[in-house]
Amino acid sequence: MERPDALSPPACRPVGQGLVRQVVPRPVRRPVRDRQSGMVTAETAVTLPVLVLFGMALVWALMATAAQVQCVDAARAGARAAARQDSPEAVLAVARRAAPGGARVTVGRSGDMVRVRVVAHPPGAGALPFEVRHEAVALAEETAGAGP
Predict the structure, then answer these.
(1) pLDDT for 74-84, tens place per residue?
(2) Spatial separation of the C-alpha atoms in residues 62 and 94, rounded to whole Å
(3) Which domain does 137 fall in, by range?
């Protein structure tokens, strides 16, 4: 018959008829402060302002795009009104109604072509020297059907 301590794990010793486990006190582990313990806070402190600025830039770009689309619509509406031989006041009123707030609208004619230009500062641009603009050209109706 084999000895019982030959099969027992090293932390056990034979006592009498059975095996009794020895209780070995373990050292108390204290939390170790690592060099990276504050990295999450530092990364968050740097990342959050960058994400906020990126979000603000996206919103501003959408607002500038919307102002550009309004300038295109206003210039085309004004050019159609000018091509129909509407009065200059009516052409300006139609273009300003479709243009973004504070836009400058100019109407001109060269030969049989009418030109309407709309220039505006996009909202939120502040001190930036940034403008959105569009110019539409239309053939005046009195010359549209005339032959050579």
Answers:
(1) 999 999 999 99
(2) 24
(3) 49-148
